[in-house]
Each structure stands twice: as C-alpha cells, then as structure tokens.
Amino acid sequence: MNYKLIAIDMDGTLLNSNKEISERNKKALKVATEKGVQVVISTGRIFTSARYYAKLLGLITPIISCNGAYVCEYHRKNVLYENPMETVDFKEIIKTLQENDFYYHFYDNENFYTRELNYSSSSYYNWNKKQKPGDRINIEIIDNPMELVEEKELKIYKIVAVDKDREKLDYIRKVLSKNKNIEIVSSWSDNIEIMNKGVSKGKALEKLCKIYNISKEQVIAIGDNYNDIPMLEFAGTAVAMGNGEEDAKKIADIVTDTNDNDGVAKAIEELIF
Questions:
Q1: What cellular-component terms does GO give this entry (predicted)?
Q2: Within 13 Å of residue 144, how many CA atoms lie on the same side as its CB?
C-alpha cells in the first residue's frame, strides 16, 4: 500500500509512561517523513502542548488537537478546521459540574483555564517550570468561568472533568448526555472529555484528508483509547497499541507493541519500511 499519511495519538501511544518519545519512535517518524509520508499528531491535548512535541520532532505538520475540535498548520498558523462549543452549552455543563463538585478545566487553542491546580493542570504547571518561555502552556487560574467566557468571547474547544470515583464519573456522564448538542468521550479511566456535537478525531482526520486529497485507504491511524476509536474507524489501516483499551484493539487491523516498548516505531517499520 502506498501510504501518504500517519495520524498518531500522543498519550499512551507516541509518548511512553514518562511522557517521553523514545529514540526508536523518533527515528521511525523521521524516516517516514523522508519517504514522503505526512505525519500528523492527533491528540486530545490543547494545541500548544501538541505543538511543543511537533517542534521537538521537527515535524512540519498539521496538528489535530482537542480531540478534533481544532486543526491547525502550526508552522504557518493556518487554521484548517475548528468546531468550538456553543456558549449556552458551555455554561450548562460548567453549572452541572460545579453543582456536583467536580474538578474540571477547559481550553481554547492557546490557554488552559482552571479554578484550581489539580490533576492535569498541576502536571502542566510543574512541566512548565522546566520549559523555555515560548514552549510553556499558558495556565490561567480563574474564579468565574461564566464571566470569563462572556467578557472575552472565548472559543472553547473542550472541557475535561476528572474524578477517581468511577461511579461518580458514570453518573455525571449520564446527566450531561441528555444534552444532544455535545460529544462525550474518555481518554483515561478517570476523566470525561466534552466537545461540541460532531467533534472527533475521525471527523477531523476526514476533513484533513479532503484538504490534502488523500484517500482513507492511504491513511494509517495509531491510538490506544476510546477517543481514538473514530480515527481508527476512518483510517484504511488501524493500529491499536498493546497497552490500549480492548474496544480499540477489537476494531484494529494490527495490534502493535506497547507505548513503553516502541509500539509506534514497530508498526511504522512494518507498514512503511
């Protein structure tokens, strides 16, 4: 098969358990690009976080961020596709999360908003300390998200709610699912991620392929979790990580090794080299 594009998830896939990219993975991506294959980072993370890793890898690539709500060619700041949440839905979701005592954060393309440093926001805050100013994620601790969205007319691409209580998460998911204007997925066992209706990595990848005139048969998608399933379903060749969720493995054409054992590189070596 003459593959032209590889879409790769980050956490649990390209990144190992230490949030690092192995040398073997780096080499595989470099060789793939030298062979004319477009490598696309496809992540639930905020755009600025994905951009850091794209620069680290030396990839001149569009980035699918926020689970597909924001797609941008970072090297020339060219937004290819976006699908932000409606303000009325954002307010309803935030109200529900606060009434049920949930930690949450949300973001646009550049800014990470939270009411407290906990879970992901705490991790990013500590990560920032090691980075150069231009590579840091802008974390804003806020008091009133409702007022913030009204005053700044923000485009919110994603809300993340986190709790270690699985039953509590299942409950809030059922409550929020009554709103038919939103999409809800998970990327970890302790979270739910909320976007506007129609947002998914698969839909974003489909839009990207139309822009670049690439058929789905020429696409490889590599991922590990529930939010990766739409892009695995879209791609001509779907690769699930050995450490991935069983639902992702069931629909995959190939199950590669784990993220701690160069699973991405091994899949690329088999399919591209």
A1: cytosol
A2: 6
- Letter string b/e over residues 134-166, b meaning 16 or more CB atoms within 10 A of that residue's CB: eebbebeebeebeebbeeeebbbbbbbbbbeee
pLDDT digit string, tens, across residues 109-140: 999 999 999 999 999 999 999 999 989 999 99
* Contact yes or no for 176/195 (Cβ under 8 A): no
CATH T-level fold of 5-83+200-271? Rossmann fold (3.40.50)
DSSP string, 37-100: PEEEEE-SS-HHHHHHHHHHHT---EEEEGGGTEEEEGGGTEEEEE-PPPHHHHHHHHHHHHHT
Q: 87-196: what fold?
A: 3.30.1240
Backbone φ and ψ for 126, nearest 5 degrees, come out as -70, -35
Burial (CB count within 10 angstroms: exposed 0-12, middle 13-18, buried 19+), residue 34: exposed
Rg (CA), the chain: 18
pLDDT digits (tens, 9 = 90+) for 72-113: 999 999 999 999 999 999 999 999 999 999 999 999 999 999
9 is a catalytic site residue: yes
248: amino acid identity, one letter: A
> Would you state the pLDDT for residue 151?
86
Q: Are 66 and 46 in contact (CB under 8 A)?
A: yes
pTM of this prediction? 0.95
Residue boundaries of the structural domains of the chain: 5-83+200-271, 87-196
Do 87-196 and 5-83+200-271 fall under one CATH topology? no
